[in-house]
Amino acid sequence: QAVVDFERLNEHAAAFQGHDVGFCCLGTTRAKAGADGFVRVDRDYVAQAAELARAGGCKHFVLQSSRGANPRSAFLYLRVKGEVENLVRAVGFERCTILRPAVLLCKRQESRPAEWIAQQFLGLVALVFPTAYSVPVEAVARAMVASVLQPSEEKVEVLENAAIHKLGKA
């Protein structure tokens, strides 16, 4: 494990060398970082890390994005997620897997009351429609690993929420 300063990521290029696969789940919230900070973390840091990984020999990059990611979205969150997907694709990995999970079901250390309420509601909805609106973070992690272990002919593979659930059970 290497600790890097994302404000000086180029100084840590060695940490990105010699890896066949890269996993990226980096992100923050607009509430925590402000709009500019959100863009810097969720787009700029991720894109720069992908570039360094590729330069360091990474062949397969696995990116956790978001359901609804769209570079033309009117919503900042979805627009930034769509923009970073395009930037990561443009890096030119031999293979790139993009996961677009819906609402992540997890326990957080920090307090997010609105998210907690949504998770409680979606947890109940998931009993009837398990792949519709949410996904446990453990399923996303298993799907990320499984995507690397399963061969694919596709250079870029985008996995939506239902596919994440399915692959997360593999």
TrEMBL record:
Pfam families xrefs: NAD_binding_10 (PF13460)
User: What is the gene called?
Assistant: Htatip2
Q: What is this protein called?
A: Protein HTATIP2
Look up and give the organism this protein is from.
Answer: Turnix velox
What's one GO BP annotation on this UniProt entry? import into nucleus
Q: How does it assemble?
A: Monomer. Forms homodimers during oxidative stress. Interacts (via N-terminus) with elongation factor EEF1A1 (via middle-region); the interaction is direct and competes with EEF1A1 binding to guanyl-nucleotide exchange factor EEF1B2, thereby inhibiting GDP for GTP exchange and reactivation of EEF1A1. Interacts with nuclear transport receptors XPO4, IPO5/RANBP5, IPO7, IPO9 and KPNB1 as well as GCN1L1/GCN1 and LRPPRC probably through their HEAT repeats. Binds NCOA5/CIA.
Q: Which GO terms describe its molecular function?
A: catalytic activity
Example GO CC term: the record gives: cytoplasm
Task: Tell me where in this chain the NAD(P)-binding domain is found.
Answer: 4-150
The uppermost taxa in this organism's lineage are:
Eukaryota, Metazoa, Chordata, Craniata, Vertebrata
> Mind telling me which InterPro entries this protein's record contains?
NAD(P)-bd_dom, NAD(P)-bd_dom_sf
